[in-house]
Amino acid sequence: MKFSLISFLLILFTGSLLALGVLDVIGTFKVSHYLDFLVFSKFFDIPAILIIFGGVFTNALIISTPADVKEVILMFRKIFSQSKINEHSLLKDVNQMTIWVEEYRRNRVDFINKIQQESKDDFVKYIFTLMSTNYSVNDLREIAETQIHYRIVEAKKLSDILKNMGNSGPAFGMFGTLFGLVFMLSSLDNPSAVGPGLALGLLATLYGVASTHLLFYPLSKKVLALAEVQQKRDEMILECAMMIVGEKSSLFIKDKLLSHLNLKYVTHPAIFDEEISEEVTIESEEPEEQIDSTEQPKDEEVE
């Protein structure tokens, strides 16, 4: 292990936030006096927030690297988002994969070059790059599954960091509560100071529990859920590639991939064709609208 200046500075910063919260509680340095404009409710307490989040992130930075903690912070953006991968998108992927089969067998080199230039999916590019090296089906599976496993491990690492932050939330809430109680007991001769100390103690616990069960734990589970959905799609792409290398028929590849989806697409194949035909119809209607819009000025000129 070697000394990391970035880790030291970040831990110093988050630890200072924790210390500022404590200093505010004991009355040494009132941070809240400088941030009165942020206090919009009795349930909003700046020292308690500094103690909870300063402590939680200090704990996370000691255990994990700054890069991992940064990834965790970026994951907060996904609180209000859902995965783009669902049954309908996977159905479209199956249709696309059946087209790949024909294009690959028609001209392998041109098709792989086309994928490398046009595809926005890094995993698809990776799989077809492996296929261009003439690996056997078993070799292709071994290499690609290692990459899929790596993605799951990375997601699990972020999930574990979030879970650890959730575990430390109530602990730092109790930390703030104890300071609040000490301040309250030391101010029994001044009844006006007892209330603020007790309020801080209760709010710190409230913030710790709320951040754990409304933020860190749910996001930890969401990271794993998103990774599992992505894993399902990656495994379907890998299976398609292995069947292409194994020279399976297009019909077999399509049916095998459909077996990964909801049973209605297997027992009622018309649903698959109807949804795909609807997409084709929508795409074919767009040029017609453009043609009509270009022809209209010509008619006006003739008049």
Q: What is the secondary structure topology, with strand pairs?
A:
Layout: H1 5-26, H2 31-34, H3 46-63, H4 66-75, H5 87-106, H6 108-118, H7 122-131, H8 137-185, H9 191-245, H10 250-258, H11 264-267, H12 269-302
Helix pairs in contact: 1-3, 1-8, 3-8, 3-9, 4-8, 5-6, 5-9, 5-10, 7-9, 8-9
Task: Describe the 3D structure.
With 303 residues, the chain is mostly helical. It has a domain of 120 residues. Helix content is 81%, strand content 0%. The chain is built from 12 helices and no strands. Helix 5 packs parallel to helix 9 and helix 5 packs antiparallel against helix 10. It is elongated.
A few lines on this structure:
With 303 residues, the chain is an all-alpha fold. It contains twelve helices and no strands. The longest helix is centred in the C-terminal third of the chain and has 55 residues, at 191-245.
Keywords:
mainly alpha; 303 residues
Distance between the termini: 83 Å
Helical percentage: over 70%
Q: Could you give the count of β-strands?
A: 0
What is the CA-atom radius of gyration, in angstroms? 29 Å
Largest sheet: none
Give average pLDDT, whole number: 81
Strand percent estimate: under 5%
The assigned structural class equals mainly alpha
Element string (H = helix, E = strand): HHHHHHHHHHHH
Shape: elongated
Helix count, DSSP H or I runs of 4 or more residues: 12
